[in-house]
Structures are given as C-alpha cells and as structure tokens.
Design a protein that fits this description.
434 Repressor (Amino-terminal Domain), six-stranded mixed sheet, six-stranded parallel sheet, alpha/beta, 13 helices, Rossmann fold, 12 strands
C-alpha cells in the first residue's frame, strides 16, 4: 500500500507539500499540485481516514438524526431519500451515519454529544415539530445542519417540497369531477409538514365550495381503519380521500372494499410519496411523487455548501412534486 512518503518521492516534493496538495491547499502551485495528484493516481494512493481527519480538522462524516426515524425506515420515501443522502455524501468524499433514537429527548441528548464530541462535520434532521428543540440546539451551537421540512425556528437551512401545494393539487384532482365529500387522513398535528398539507387541503376545498374534514393519525397505518369506520358509522358522506402517505391509502382502500364501497366509483383515493407499492395495489394507487431522492441530494449539497461557508447563512431549497394518476382516482 502506497504512503504519503511514496507520493512525495515520486512527485519530487516534500511530504508536507504532498499533504497540502492532496488536501487542496491554495498555497500549493498548480503545477506542483497536478504533479502530486498524478503520482497519487499512478500509485493508487488512498489516505487513511484518521490521518486525513488530523490534517484537515474534519471527520469526513455526516450524521442523519430523526426522533421518528424508527417508524419511517421501511417506507419507500425514506429508502429513496436515504439513497439521495448517501450518494451526495459519497460524491463529496463523506460517509453517512445514522442514529435511531426512541424520542425527541433521546435525539437531543445524542445531538448534544454529537456536537460537543464532534462525531461528524454536519447533521441532517427530519420531521420537525411545531416547537422543535433539536433545531434550536443546532442554531444556538452554530453547528452545520440541514433540515428536511419547514422549520418553526429561524435561521435553519431547509430542503422541502411545497407541502401546501402538494395537498392542494392532490385535492383539486379528486374534486375536479364534482366530488363533494372529501376527507384528509393526515399525520400528527404537531408536525409542520402535516400542518402545511392540511392548509393546502382546506384551500382546495374552499375553492370548490365543499366542507373539509380532517382526521389525524399518529399511529401505524392500521389506525386508518378506525378513522374510516368512525366516518361511515356516523353517517357522513364520503366520496374522496387524500392520505398523508401511501400505506395509509392502501389501508383505506382495503377498508372501503370490506365495507362494500368501490374505489374509485364510490370513493376516489390518492396517497403521497409514490412508494413502489402503488404499482401493485388493486386498483393501482394514485399518488404524489415527492422526489425523495432529489430531496436527499439537495439536502447534502446544501449542507456541504454551508460547511464550506459558501451559503452565507441559512438557505432554503424547494424540490418540485408531481401528481401520478392511476386507477384509484381515475
């Protein structure tokens, strides 16, 4: 295995100059830097991470931290989002690590140690609540970060969809043929993205002149069954359902089928995230494509730019969404 001394000898420079050149130091002349890089490639040189960290002052690691991560790890959205994070980190020369805390209290404890002991050079956060202590912690510590979602705290860098438009577009699609009794099966009310999606749902209902009904599900997808049974048991009209995620839409379709309601003839349904499972339901499920991979890539790009001081403060990016219409709402 080649060492930095081998590179220096091959490029006819000192070990310190070779090290500076490999780390992109601006004090090294371009011709020297090119000679060192060519020698490193010729000798198939790969620096030890520990040595690289010592010379650069960086850990070359990015941490993903989310207090509700355990409930999301099997979702198609999380899989694609994680892939986007991973690929972006890899292309930037970083590794991606994650922690699966039990709740926000544990997440804050982990974050405190992560920042104090410098486990990583930056952190990716997800699923903000309306009063998010995690975000306050990173802002006060001035620790490099990026959030997936709308932040209730000022000074936070974020990557997100326009969740108001996401729900508004989905609802308008269902109401366009003249449906008059929509229901939004939403996530927990304290999450900022669910608040935004409720706003979009209500805006679309107001424009169409129909009464909005909203149910909150802070539990596994099977809880949707109780929501629909309660709705039908109360004798409420129901001809359209928007769900905050695709698994909830699948449970809604099954429940309606068991209750003798046809999809989409009696009740049209659209989900969100466009998980892989949408292709295999019967009927196939309409959904909103949130472009999770692009969200992950953009999150890493924004984080790396912030770590290098290229953003000049908190920055925000929006990733576009699109409706994917299938038989469940046709």
């Amino acid at each position: 295995m080649s060492t930095i001394r081998d590179i220096a000898r091959s490029a006819n420079v000192s070990v310190s100059t070779a090290s500076l050149a490999l780390n992109g130091d601006a004090r090294v002349r371009e011709a020297t830097r090119r000679r060192v890089l060519e020698a490193a490639e010729l000798l198939d040189y790969h620096p030890m991470r520990a040595a690289r960290s010592l010379s650069s002052g960086r850990t070359w690691s990015i941490h993903l931290l989310d207090p509700s991560l355990g409930a999301n790890m099997t979702s198609g959205f999380f899989t694609h989002y994680l892939r986007g994070l991973h690929d972006g980190a890899r292309d930037g020369g970083y590794t991606l690590t994650l922690t699966v805390p039990q709740d926000e209290a544990e997440a804050r404890s982990v974050l405190k140690r992560l920042m104090a002991e410098r486990w990583s050079d930056g952190v990716v956060l997800m699923n903000p609540s309306e009063h998010d202590g995690l975000l306050q912690d990173v802002v006060e510590a001035r620790f490099p970060h990026v959030l997936l979602g709308r932040s209730p705290v000022a000074g936070v860098s974020t990557v997100d969809n326009d969740n108001v438009a996401v729900a508004r577009d989905a609802t308008e699609h269902l109401l366009a043929p003249g449906r008059r009794a929509p229901l939004l099966i939403n996530g927990p009310a304290y999450r900022t993205f669910t608040q935004d999606r409720e706003q979009g749902f209500r805006e679309a209902c107001s424009t169409a002149g129909v009464r909005p009904r909203v149910a909150y599900v802070d539990a596994p997808p099977d809880a949707v069954r109780e929501v629909i049974d309660a709705h039908l048991g109360a004798g409420l009209a129901l001809d359209a359902i928007v769900t905050v995620a695709d698994p909830q839409a699948v449970v809604a379709m099954r429940t309606l089928h068991e209750r003798g309601r046809r999809v989409p003839q009696d009740v049209a349904i659209i989900g969100m995230n466009n998980d892989d499972l949408t292709q295999y339901t019967n009927p196939r499920l309409s959904s909103v494509e949130l472009n999770a991979f692009a969200l992950g890539r953009n999150a890493i790009e924004l984080l790396l730019a912030g770590m290098d001081g290229a953003t000049g403060g908190a920055s925000q990016r929006l990733v576009p969404h699109e409706l994917v219409i299938r038989e469940s709402s046709a």
